[in-house]
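Input sequence (197 aa), recorded before submission:
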Amino acid sequence: MTSSHWPGLSDPEHSAWYVERFRAMAAQGEDLLGESRFVDVLAPRRARLLDAGCGPGRHGGHLARLGHQVVGVDIDPALIAAAREDHPEATWMVADLATLDLPASGEPEPFDGALIAGNVMDFIGPGHQSEAIRRVAAHLRVGGFLVIGCRVTRGFTPEDLDAALPSAGLRLEHRFATWDLAPWQADADFAVSVLRR
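Predicted structure, token format:
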């Protein structure tokens, strides 16, 4: 049983639409890389990075082109296939974040940092969100970072995230209202949290 309610798991046409939507946006020159630029600032050069819930790979692919060693994971095989096609410079794997165990899949080295971007937390079932954070955090080296960006109006709030941190061995280092570092405020509808192990 999966922890996800991502619609592409039951409707392959949704996954195909999602892939083509972002390919079209990229072709039109839209800026789709704010999240990966944010991570690149935090990461040491040639870092080992985990793109958790990577979708079709635009963030991880960009980070790999910047010289980082990237592993991306997503629960949807169709999105992983698109990531492999569009961004062959990174490693892409099908995995459920709530049961993530990359050493068992041949990726034993810990990561310098990890990213959970976009709507990933929205598509993890409420009973599995904290476990997904714990599983991703378990793949970080001591001192490594995890960046989580999510809407705060869809059931997973900053307070929920903060409550999950102690059991994940994480602490909150920074919180912003946008990927371009707008200051956090209580009435913001999006939160970007920088967590440290």
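Checked by second reader. The domain at 7-196 is CATH 3.40.50.150 (Rossmann fold).
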